[in-house]
């Protein structure tokens, strides 16, 4: 299967491909086309993933229209910031657990002497919508006020959605 050589009218040689070469050429074209389609799809998927990453980052970590590598660097910086914040909050949580000691918090069946021994207690629970914080305080205690607790929560970057207070004879609960 050698290519046939035909002389043109001006003496130039033109090469014609044999039938086997034409089939290989068609297969190569199909492979190239399939490769281009796969690469185009891959680029589209990556563009969607980068867009979702950009949407997850706070605006101060993405300033203006930046390159993809800058966006990934911003994501890494944000993740490191969150990790440091989690470590700091974990330390504060452990500190609060140690301060609180073995006290079990506020229970309705506590005697008056027990309430006086633990004038304030704080119980933090995970709830469906976020975090629930129950603060129990004896009427005479001035150490822990609701305003101080709300101020501390705001300083920590938490939003207070709802606050309910009630008072019994010896205890205030928020």
From TrEMBL:
Gene3D superfamilies: Helix-loop-helix DNA-binding domain. Its main location: nucleus. One of its GO terms (cellular component) is RNA polymerase II transcription regulator complex. It is found in: Nucleus. It comes from Gossypium laxum. GO terms for molecular function: DNA-binding transcription factor activity, RNA polymerase II-specific; protein dimerization activity; RNA polymerase II transcription regulatory region sequence-specific DNA binding. Residues 30-82 form the BHLH domain. Coiled coil: none annotated. Residues 13-38 are annotated as: Disordered. This is BHLH domain-containing protein. Residues 20-38 have a biased composition (Basic and acidic residues). PROSITE patterns: BHLH. It comes from the Eukaryota. InterPro entries: bHLH_dom (IPR011598), HLH_DNA-bd_sf (IPR036638), MASH1/Ascl1a-like (IPR015660). PANTHER family: ACHAETE-SCUTE COMPLEX PROTEIN T5-RELATED, ACHAETE-SCUTE TRANSCRIPTION FACTOR-RELATED. The lineage of its organism: Eukaryota, Viridiplantae, Streptophyta, Embryophyta, Tracheophyta. Keywords: DNA-binding, Nucleus, Transcription, Transcription regulation.
